[in-house]
Amino acid sequence: xxxxxxxxxxxxxxxxxxxxxxxxxxxxxxxxxxxxxxxxxxxxxxxxxxxxxxxxxxxxxxxxxxxxxxxxxxxxxxxxxxxxxxxxxxxxxxxxxxxxxxxxxxxxxxxxxxxxxxxxxxxxxxxxxxxxxxxxxxxxxxxxxxxxxxxxxxxxxxxxxxxxxxxxxxxxxxxxxxxxxxxxxxxxxxxxxxxxxxxxxxxxxxxxxxxxxxxxxxxxxxxxxxxxxxxxxxxxxxxxxxxxxxxxxxxxxxxxxxxxxxxxxxxxxxxxxxxxxxxxxxxxxxxxxxxxxxxxxxxxxxxxxxxxxxxxxxxxxxxxxxxxxxxxxxxxxxxxxxxxxxxxxxxxxxxxxxxxxxxxxx
Length: 362
Known about the structure:
By secondary structure, the chain is an alpha/beta fold. It has helices spanning 10-23, 42-52, 68-85, 98-109, 129-139, 149-157, 171-184, 188-192, 207-210, 213-227, 238-246, 250-254, 267-275, 285-294, 309-312, 323-334, 351-360, and strands at 2-7, 30-35, 59-60, 90-94, 113-117, 143-146, 165-167, 200-203, 232-235, 259-262, 279-282, 298-300, 316-318.
């Protein structure tokens, strides 16, 4: 069986890496890697590939930035040419980025089987481009690999036959468990002058938090509340920096002396920061999952989440977009009521093997 694995952005790298590694233990399965180049920061992409032990991509499409329509169209055109030259049995896509939908569409129209890893996750908010990508990719996938049992209920409600749905666990946790010990040996805390368990890690970049003047000001208000309680380590996303500059708000951020602004980090250093934080304040789906696996309290600055198991079972709290809710959550933590949760079912480091076992017997 020939499987073509697609990555487009950094969150995809952590999900495909363990699948490629596990495939070496499955005779008869050959995997190749296609990098669409949707995430076009070459330095960071190269660093992630190196740290995760990913092989060089067999094909790099280099589509770069653009509107959702432009980016999706470019990926479709370029991926279609790849399949002309190198046929495959299965196209495996992960997550919910534009590359996920684009490559699924191309494969489906060629009658090539599509496997979607992280299927069935829903926020219920169709204003999010990722939600549209998730729904459409699932509709045309032949194998739908889920991270939690509620995902199957979402899929069945949308008319997906149960025989296509496979509960296998979370491939991101495969990667986290494999690299956690190595990450904890990194000197990032010493380099930043931070102490384990005494700082907050913050990542904020979603449109709902930075794309308008009002949203960006609201986000800074929340950050000011957080910085009044803890030193804050803030890997500043390029999108967030750009929007703050656009709205003239960067000086307000710079006045927060408790906030240590750093560049976006590689996988190992970010994992080290997350695993040793007192709390994470975020709008990232991946951080919600990883903090749940690590038992680190996570406060999510969003109205909804496509990863509800991190709230119902894990260490995540959904705050909405009112900074006062952050203040109340921090008061609860100070009173000794920090949420730790538990590790969800099958988040055990073996999800990749389960995926390949299903495909091997298909």
